[in-house]
Amino acid sequence: MNVEFSLLGGFPRSRRFRHAIRDFEEGAIDEATYMSVYLQELGRVIGVQNSFDYKILIDGQFDWHDILRPFSSSWRGVYPSSLLRYFDNNFFYRIPVFHGKPEPYSFFLARKAKMLAGMLDKQELGKIVVPGPVTFTGLSKNMTGHDDFWLASKIAEALNIELRKVNSSERFILQIDEPGLSENEVYGRFRGELKELYSILLRDLSFSKIIVSVYFRAPVEKAYQELISLDGVDVISLDWVDDKKTVRKLINEYGVKGGGLGLGVVDARSIYGEDPEIVAGEVRKVVESLDLKFLMLTTSTWLELIPFRYAAKKAGILASIALYLHRDLA
Q: Backbone dihedral region of 60: left (phi > 0), alpha (psi from -120 to 50 degrees) or beta?
């Protein structure tokens, strides 16, 4: 069994970058000055991952105010509005308000991918992270005059356009974040529709691997059944930290997707460190009876809410867990 590991996303900002992004958005500094600070921050995040021999690297999303804002502020037909806390776990975001068909025009994701690719060695892969169409729609306000499935399908189209602009996509893994699928209220609006939405989202994409990640809770049972039947998806990643019992039940009853399994095994919302050997032992008991080709280990969610030094420590713990499991399961 191949054991891989990668941070789920969202590294915390340094004080210097917090000041830089505020000053840039207020017009106090020019783009060149801001980008100089951004690239230094990117190098810092890559350096942490390199120090623990990560082979799948994120750019840290430290310039994203939340998982939806880069899209809601750079597409036509939508704008970010008031701030809201959701998922009962310090997940804050500005509600996207859709008043028409979403249309990408600045293609920020391709620019971000290009900068990340410039930091990668030949044996490393980058990871592109986007919100899934169910979660995006579920967290938005629909003022288009159309139903939510129409909006979700148009969001899937817009995400597909963004992703097709990423050059050399075989050098990247794609991660689609769907925490909304852990909520009955959100999933219920799209029950039975995931296959169609994901066929739109994934059309003509050629990433090295495609992951759908559900976190904050385990996915709704019916949602998990739909997820493992999706065409074009290589692995479903689940939040092991939040609900071990339900995750174990889902994979034992319904199996896994394509011989692969993703597990969020390091608590990204806590500064306290896990014992890598103990966590590895717990995970081994779950996966050793499964016929897995690969195991993808991640943090439970994004790391952006804890201080940088603790996020770096968590990155090291995740790498250590992977080493224990590689030794035991290879």
A: left
CATH no., domain 2-15+54-329: 3.20.20.210
Using DSSP's 3-state secondary structure scheme, residue 148 falls into: helix
Would you list the domain boundaries of the chain?
2-15+54-329
Q: Is the dihedral of CA 226, 228, 229, 235 positive or negative?
A: positive
Per-residue model confidence (pLDDT) at position 289: 86
Helix (H, G, I), strand (E, B), or coil: what is residue 297? strand
Residues sharing a CB contact under 8 Å with residue 298, sequence separation 6 or more, in sequence order: 5, 6, 7, 8, 213, 237, 262, 263, 264, 265, 266, 318
Residue with tokens 């032992």: 281
Summarize pLDDT for 173-222 with one digit per residue, the tens: 999 999 999 999 999 999 999 999 999 999 999 999 999 999 999 999 99
Burial class (CB in 10 A: 0-12, 13-18, 19+), 85: exposed
Provide the mean pLDDT of the chain: 94
In whole angstroms, how far apart are CA 40 and each of 46, 70, 204, 302? 10, 20, 34, 21
Per-residue pLDDT tens digits for 139-163: 999 999 999 999 999 999 999 999 9
Q: Taking phi first (over 0 means left), then psi (-120 to 50 degrees means alpha), and beta for anything else, what does residue 216 get? A: left
